[in-house]
Amino acid sequence: xxxxxxxxxxxxxxxxxxxxxxxxxxxxxxxxxxxxxxxxxxxxxxxxxxxxxxxxxxxxxxxxxxxxxxxxxxxxxxxxxxxxxxxxxxxxxxxxxxxxxxxxxxxxxxxxxxxxxxxxxxxxxxxxxxxxxxxxxxxxxxxxxxxxxxxxxxxxxxxxxxxxxxxxxxxxxxxxxxxxxx
Length: 182
What we know:
Radius of gyration: 17 Å
Mean pLDDT: 90
Low-confidence stretches: none
Shape: globular
Strand order of the largest sheet: 1-2-3-4-5
Number of strands: 5
Order of helices and strands: HEHEHEHHEHE
């Protein structure tokens, strides 16, 4: 629910804090993830992207990570290209809808719908969509999961596997794989 100005100010603060103000930023990527659902605030997000591009025109790319639903991905896709090229990331984390609903209770759409929207984004932008996938022992790390992921269209998608970062209060039945198992 942040305003476009508040979103812009977060980016500006981080850029200044990193000492990048006035330096080449063609290697900088701004990512919107892990802070709530960016596409639930699409208008303010896109206005902030325009402001970021206006102040820092060398920034070459922005990543937006979403859990969906597909209609939000479609709405974003319909507005492409944006001021700064947008790289879409989808928080997938499962190969079956029941498992995904368990892991992302507020993700109201099916995996099939989300992936179809991701494919359309790829077709509109030419950019491959990243599928974020946290490996969880005994939940989404089985051989059928691996095969399902391997069968995804490599022209439209690539997979980013991640280890679980445990935090206090996390359910005991959610355990990640160890470094050696990844």
